[in-house]
Amino acid sequence: MLRRPLPLAIVVFLVAEALFLIGLTVPHQFVFDEVHYVPAARALLTLDGPVNIEHPLLGKWLIAQGIRLFGDDALGWRFMSTLAGAVTVTAIFAIVWQITHRRRPSLVAAALTVLNFTVFVQARIAMLDGFMLAFLAAGIAMAAAALRNGGLARWAVAAALLGAATACKWLAAPYVAFAALAFVLLKREDPRRFPGLSTPVALGVLTLVSAVTYLATFAPAFFYRDAPLTLATLLPFQLEMFDRQTQVLPAHTYQSNWWTWPLLIRPIWYLYEPADGAQRGILLLGNPVIMWTGLIAVVACWWGWVRSGSARLLAAAALWTGSLAVWAVIPKSLGFYYYYYPSSVFIVIAIVVALDHWRARTRGWDTALLAASLALAIYFYPVLAALPLPAADAFRYWTWFPTWV
């Protein structure tokens, strides 16, 4: 039974969710950008009026549902993020299953995603990025299913998920264009792909469904007591959001350039202060074993595609490359390491696809990679899960380079 993808996916989801829930309510105070998004979620619960208008509503609405279910405390703020993290892990499993149709690389991908630090940290904080990536990864998985099995319904669901991802953060918007480009190129290369879907229909459905899904998530704003949206102001409001997104911001301690993120030059301390009666820290950092090995895997995928024309090597390499390249053109005055979050997850796909493609030569490498990744996860766990630290300067134990402080 567990050789089939659906039961395995359910197990992956439940295991990931259980891991993310451990110690979720520590600390009981706001962590990093929770100071922005929890008040915005509260405003959506009460419908008082617009708050944090530089971002769409869906991610903040999901945080609000956690507060509605569990109360206005640390569990309520963060619970929905744990579900988003578990969905992300499961979606990576599903994407690799669609690419390889093999159990081992799919499970290795899920395990590496959990051990990759970034998903663990983002699954335990009330920020928008976790929700965005959950919808985005699920949309990619559904599009991959449509590639093999066809069907307008699967493609429409993929489009809706991409629209929902954009409704969490605009960073997901380029992936709608990526999906359109991928469809055209893959369909042109082999007309048997996406059976039952013609290019005009597929592109039309992708555009319409993603746009309608995105706009529909603004429905709560029509019921604000103060400055409610109307049909006439919905589109102009998007321009106001754009102005907020592109404003020039003052310098920040943790700012960094996009090209530094894959090299782990400037991670972010989401927390480092006394909290809940102890010194605690939360470091947003990709697992170095996975991050640096992944760069080699991306190069190998590009090289393998040039040599063999393998579509799956191209897909794995292009997904990571595209997710990073958008930051070279996005008009943001400041960059931060957490913007690398999608890329830090997609790099896992490049690793397992490369290992699977050359599995005759790389037998056992996945086991060694998992072991090394687990060892570092245990080593860094105190500053991933906000465990009590022995002293105020304990951060030195985990800061390998001066730029990690």
UniProtKB/TrEMBL annotation:
Biological or metabolic pathway of the protein: Protein modification; protein glycosylation
Quote the function comment for this protein.
Protein O-mannosyltransferase that catalyzes the transfer of a single mannose residue from a polyprenol phospho-mannosyl lipidic donor to the hydroxyl group of selected serine and threonine residues in acceptor proteins.
Which stretches are transmembrane? 6-26, 75-99, 130-147, 153-186, 198-224, 289-306, 313-330, 336-355, 367-389
Q: Where is the Glycosyltransferase RgtA/B/C/D-like domain?
A: 55-212
Q: What is its main location?
A: membrane
Q: What is its EC number?
A: 2.4.1.-
Q: Which organism is it from?
A: Sphingomonas olei
The residues covered by the Protein O-mannosyl-transferase C-terminal four TM domain are 234-302
A Pfam family in this protein? PMT_4TMC
Per UniProt, the keywords (alphabetical) are: Cell membrane, Glycosyltransferase, Membrane, Transferase, Transmembrane, Transmembrane helix
Q: Where in the cell is it found?
A: Cell membrane
UniProt name for this protein: Polyprenol-phosphate-mannose--protein mannosyltransferase
Enzyme kind, highest EC tier: transferase
Homology family: Belongs to the glycosyltransferase 39 family.
